[in-house]
Amino acid sequence: MERGKISMYHKAKGYGFILPHLGGPAVFVHRSTLEPREPAPEPGDEIDFEAFKGLKGYRTTRATLVRTHE
Questions:
Q1: FRET pair for 57, CA 20 to 30 Å: which of 22, 28, 44, 51?
Q2: Does the residue 70 lie in any domain?
Q3: What is the pLDDT of residue 39?
Q4: Where in the numbering of this chain does the CSD domain appear (predicted)?
Q5: Domain-embedded: residue 56
């Protein structure tokens, strides 16, 4: 698992992007791979994730929200 930070998340569409702490390209995250799914992540939230390189770039296979803004 890697750790990163949510850079953007579109709540209505259920997807966003993670900036990995170790650097590299942004990683696409979809709500179907996110635990917990509610509440939706906010920019700046920490997230643990596993990803693979697909045809359109990196995307998560599993993602776990570490903390949310209150």
A1: 44
A2: no
A3: 87
A4: 3-59
A5: yes
